[in-house]
Amino acid sequence: MAYAIKMIQPTSRKRDTGYSGVAWTCLFFGPFPALYRGHIFGFIGMTIVNFATLGLSTFVFIFVYNAWHYHSLLSRGFHPAGHQFGKVRENIVEVTADNNNSPEDIFEMEDLRQRRRIMLASPELSENLIDDNLR
Q1: What is the CA 57 to chain-centroid distance, rounded?
Q2: What is the dihedral of CA 42, 45, 51, 55, to 10 degrees?
Q3: Which residues contact 75 (CB under 8 A, 6 or more apart)?
Q4: Strands (E), the chain
Q5: Distances from the Cα of 54 to the Cαs of 50, 57, 62, 119, in angstroms?
Q6: What pLDDT shows up at residue 128?
Q7: What is the pTM of this model?
Q8: Which H or E run contains 44?
Q9: If DSSP codes are grouped into helix, strand and coil, which group holds residue 126?
Q10: Strand order in the sheet with 2-8
Q11: Phi and psi dihedrals of 6, rounded to 5?
């Protein structure tokens, strides 16, 4: 089963859909889903390899093609549209300086002199597309 990933190109605001998972359409229709998605290099490559292997490569392409198409969209400047760029949530984690690997020691609040602060950053998720926030 494949999951759709909405993607957008920030400069031109073009939208496209990448997929993650097994490409069952490639099993039934061969290289034509690549042509439908506008992935010409994928269509030509899959056609040549299918002719060379007498169609046996189809069973490989059903597992590989969606990732190939997704990474080709990333290389053309598209980004997943489900998050906002630039907004980052920061979490601060205290870590001990000694080599003691006990997890209880990390969260104890005594002896703060030996602790170092590490900042973890993660993007905030949004339900809207990037260009929907500009209205």
Answers
A1: 25
A2: -50
A3: none
A4: 2-8, 15-21, 79-80, 83-96, 115-125
A5: 6, 8, 16, 54
A6: 52
A7: 0.59
A8: helix 40-52
A9: coil
A10: 15-21, 2-8, 79-80
A11: -70, 135
- Look-up: residue for tokens 């998605």? 37
CB atoms within 10 A of CB 73: 20
pLDDT by residue (tens digit) across 9-44?
888 888 999 998 999 999 999 999 999 999 999 999
Q: Which residues of 33-44 are buried (b: 16+ CB within 10 A; e: fewer)?
A: bbbebebeebbe
Tell me how far apart the alpha carbons of residues 64 and 72 are, in angstroms, rounded to a whole number. Answer: 12
pLDDT value of residue 87: 47
* Neighbouring residues of 3: CB distance < 8 A, sequence distance ≥ 6: 19, 20, 21
User: What are the distances in angstroms from CA 80 to CA 16, 24, 96?
Assistant: 10, 22, 36
Report the DSSP beta bridge partners of residue 83.
Answer: 125
| Cα torsion 88, 125, 6, 57: sign | positive
The separation between CA 86 and the C-alpha centre of its own chain, rounded to angstroms, equals 17
